[in-house]
Design brief:
Layout: E1 8-17, E2 21-27, E3 40-43, E4 46-54, E5 57-63, H1 64-69, E6 80-84, E7 104-113, E8 118-123, E9 137-140, E10 143-150, E11 154-159, H2 161-166, E12 177-182, H3 184-201
Antiparallel strand pairs: 1-2, 1-6, 2-5, 3-4, 3-6, 4-5, 7-8, 7-12, 8-11, 9-10, 9-12, 10-11
């Protein structure tokens, strides 16, 4: 489990393309501290498993399903990525509950800078619209953010200077893809209400 509070802006140092997967080597001095084989690290919001660790770099295998459902397939050597280690028991939940299971991808549509923050408009897949509400939580490239406005096919978020400086959203431009994970609580509530409605109808 993660919180969506990015620990550092890492970098892809190598990409090895396999038959039905990719192996990434990533640099992250903070998240590799104490890392070992089998640990989890979120990369742009995708929970990956550490295969190998040497110095300030680690490798992770990404299967075809993950490549198809996320934007990780667009990464190349030199790409910057958001990195976060799992939350330890007893830690503060600074963002919201993030599983690292991407629900879909969106696209940066527009950026509107102002003096102290920036509004970013992001496209929203139709099957995720019902989970996104004004002032609700959403994870964008592994970043826990609050929805400012929720439209039928898009949403907006307001980014403070710290987020712009320390995450990939400070560099991404219109047309760039982003990983989206909606609030897991909303999905569970939908399932429970659906089961109750079906039970009442029987």
């Amino acid at each position: 489990m993660f919180t969506g509070i990015v620990e550092e802006l890492g970098e892809v140092t190598a990409v090895e393309t396999l038959d039905d997967a990719c192996r990434f080597r990533l640099r992250g001095p903070v998240v590799t501290q104490g890392a070992k084989h089998g640990d989890s690290i979120a990369v742009n919001g995708v929970c990956l498993t550490v295969v190998d660790h040497e110095g300030d770099e680690f490798t992770a295998d990404v299967m075809a399903e993950t490549l198809n459902r996320s934007s990780l397939g667009a990464l190349k050597p030199g790409s910057r990525v958001n990195l976060e280690r799992p939350m330890a028991v007893g830690d503060r939940l600074g963002g919201h509950i993030v599983q690292g299971h991407v629900d879909g991808t969106g696209e940066i549509l527009e950026r509107k800078p102002s003096e102290h923050w920036e509004i970013v408009k992001i496209s929203l897949p139709a099957d995720l619209t019902r989970y996104v509400v004004e002032k609700g939580s959403i994870t964008v490239d592994g970043i826990s953010l609050t929805v400012v406005d929720a439209g039928p096919d898009h949403f907006t978020v307001s980014l403070i200077p710290t987020t712009l400086d320390l995450t990939t959203l400070g560099h991404k431009q219109p047309g760039d893809p982003v990983n989206l994970e909606v609030d897991v609580i909303a999905k569970y509530v939908e399932r429970m209400l659906g089961d109750r409605a079906r039970g009442a109808a029987e």
